[in-house]
Amino acid sequence: MRREPHPLTGTIYEEAGEGRVRVSKQDSESYGIFTWQGEWLEGEVTQADPHMLVYIGGPDLPLDHEVFWMAAGSDVYDGSIPVDAPPGTHMSEMGRLISGFTPDKGKDTARGPRSSEFYEAEFFLEHERFPERLPDAFRQVSPMEGGPQRIHTDRFYKREYHDLEVERIWKRTWQMACREDDIPDVGDYHVYEIAHLSFLVVRTGEDEIRAYQNVCLHRGRLLKECSGRGASEFMCPYHGWSWKIDGSLKSITTEWDFPGVREDAAQLPEANVGRWGGFVFINPDPDAEPLEDFLGPVMIDYYSKYRLEDRYKQAHVQKLVRANWKVVMEAFMESYHVIATHPHQMLLGGDLANTDYDVFGNWGRAGIFPSPGSPQRGISTTPEEALASWRAAVDGQRAMLKGMYGIDTDQFADNELQGGFHDLFPNLHPWGGWSRICFRFRPHGDDPDACVMDALLLAPWPDGKDKPPPAKIRKLGFDDAWTAAPELLSLSKIMDQDVGNLASLQKGLKAKQPPYVWYSAYQEGKIRNFHRNYNKALGLDDE
To answer: How far apart are CA 37 and CA 78, in angstroms?
Structure first.
């Protein structure tokens, strides 16, 4: 049975069975019983932290799967096999840190106000033990300029914005469609859908991938409704018209009745295809800039040694969420929410106040420098303690990568082994370091109040060893918990907390007066950068 103290109050949250949680104050006999959804049932204690209730009493993982996802082996942990992980990486084995709430008063730096426990990235660069190994991108500093910004709520739910996104983003911007491993052999194809648009991404040669509009040129039926293997043609199930995998017309049934039509139907309309890091990108705009220019030199240099193209797709979970895709995506673009949304994470250490945010065109970077400092609990660190904590985390990564995967970690600088949650406009989040996480966010058809969120784990894989086929996609509905996908390990518990905010947030955006939201100067700078790129793409004035 789960039992944990609250990191700020020490109040005990204990699983009471049948979806109920007992909440007991320290050094007191007073208690309250709640449902994990937050409803008070009985007792003197009538208020409880909703995210602790979810964590303790909500949908759960198999106990042996509550392992830090970065430390597990590369099997598909679907609940049926024990997790291969080093000692000390199970959540139950980690220490617990409790201290009362203390407001973070911040401090002034040369670049503006920061958390009182913030250490500039330059501090860790100055103490880099292997500076000769470090790509130049890690030395680039570019926080989002400007102060707090307000954005009108219309863009999060009004249909006119959804329609503009289709025309000016999804029809004109580079977007990740699949992994190369998803279509390993000639004739394999992946159906990529975005809003009401549908594309066929096809391997047409050993080293050639093309993408076509997934629509019959006769009467407009989708040619394929799901991904598949080994196709030699794409035949419309409605009247039998067919095209070869190179997109050229193969046959028109009863062509005698369509004189002069062959030329018009000779080729399926094509989208541009680009490849980077094992991802397949498409862009339907015939005048699209090269993918490399869209990514930018800093992003390409940053990932240059991580070999994302050699990673193994250990997990791929796709979930429907009752919120706009931008609302859901923003929940994963800052660590400011940890103190309220992820209280159980704070039990294990700091509150991620030492997160370093930079933006480079279409790419946003958030570097995490592990520190026991927790300014919102009054726990401070000396520079020496912060450096020691960071180096301990780095050295742990070195040992794991070498011991579990045989990776030559002597090629990496310390700064390359840190984690980070990064984003590429408009909707891809390939995290940094060896954190494995990659997120993608898309509208759910033409409904601006719903979206599809993909969560992938891209695990390291030993050199010289053939990779198994990528994990199959697990699809979760609106009411399914992320813990129904145990292959995400402890990440699934965190994501249930994140997504637990979002349906309520979507409703609140429609009701809010005045009709705008605020984003902070620094901690939410990556989100402001997204909206700067969004405004530019849609032709909107900055607000």
So the answer is: 25
